């Protein structure tokens, strides 16, 4: 069993008792009482005896990243008052190990710990050897992750443990080690009561751990999915896909995967995670800036790539099939393309083939704009590309013009005089927190009840662009529709099961209306 532990910095008895009660209510298995700021030994005894959950007592000195400035002798006097605790955490480099016998025969079980806040410890495996050679029943090693690959070393430590072990990485890149600790058999992992109360960088809250990341359902056979990008911290995809897995009853967890810019970073991530024994990496969403890197990697690895993704020049979804003992088979598609097309055709009540001859304005020549142009040209639409820089719009038009449909470029200030009846906005203008901006400001085209305006921005759900278009009488579609459709397409592709679209929609809308 892997325990879920909530760390609590003790300020006073009332605060600590309240936080222990909140941790128990949230579903924690035990709490760590951080008594770094405590000097009253009697308070320590009260805290432990009154706790409704099993307790780890930790008095972390400043030289190990804590806040306690007491001498070792003074720390020992405090720890002696924790005799009724389930565990006491003591640093590997502490001089107190020779005094443990003074705690008596029935002293708490000991956790021996080592922390490195600067990065991966030098002589990592020498440190592990020292941890395992102490009389402590449980070994704990924690360091700051440089990249996602540091998590793999934490998992390997757990797979080869000699005694119950805690192996965790700090920082945003280390979050993976905290959520997947249960999959790899760690003794425990930590989750804070709230973000401000976190006792180490990268801790998620217990609400997130049990709610978003499906802590109670994770086991050794749980498949791993995730979204690869940079930045990635505020992605809604984990909440959406984990809710979908839960609804359908699939043993899987979906995580944010921070991979730095550049093809070499993406390749290093793929090579190491695909090779990791027991990781069960089964599918990936790919977002900025790695969609082109994903296509390149799959091409190098002779993976299967759908023709349209090749034409667009970007892959946003990878499925990883593992059969037998051979290399995993990689399959890449682009679900953005279908999401854009269906977000347009559904409200118009037409089929994709009916786009032939329709006049469509695509505003923006970035990744989403490129996908829209490729998809529309494929189905024979006449597309006009508007972009802040005409040169980029022209390059995009030249690439896809004549591929069934006609594609031309135009100056952005000509948008107000366009004769198009479908408008697709793909830039970040109007996105939170700059929600008062609109690409239609000063460029309002003539709209009517026959016009359709689609804004790929999904936060806020009702952008200023959509408000202006609706006021002009046009039909409108928000970015939530595209976001939902592309996510549902990914779920279908990975699992072979229909996505629970309504649950996914509820999660998106709930998170956007908080």
What is the class of the largest domain in the CATH system?
A: Alpha Beta
Could you tell me the mean pLDDT?
A: 94
Q: What proportion of the residues is helical, as a percent range?
A: 25-40%
Let me know the number of strands: 20
How would you describe the overall organization of this protein?
- The chain is of the alpha/beta class and 514 residues long.
- It has three domains: 3-220, Aldolase class I (TIM Barrel, Alpha-Beta Barrel), CATH 3.20.20.70; 237-333 and 485-512, Leucine Dehydrogenase, chain A, domain 1 (Rossmann fold, 3-Layer(aba) Sandwich); 337-477, NAD(P)-binding Rossmann-like Domain (Rossmann fold, 3-Layer(aba) Sandwich), CATH 3.40.50.720.
- It has 17 helices and 20 strands.
- It has an eight-stranded parallel sheet. A six-stranded mixed sheet has the order 10-9-11-13-14-12, with helices on both faces. Strands 17-16-15-18-19-20 form a six-stranded parallel sheet, with helices on both faces.
- The longest helix is centred in the last third of the chain and has 17 residues, at 479-495.
- The model has no long low-confidence stretch (mean pLDDT 94).
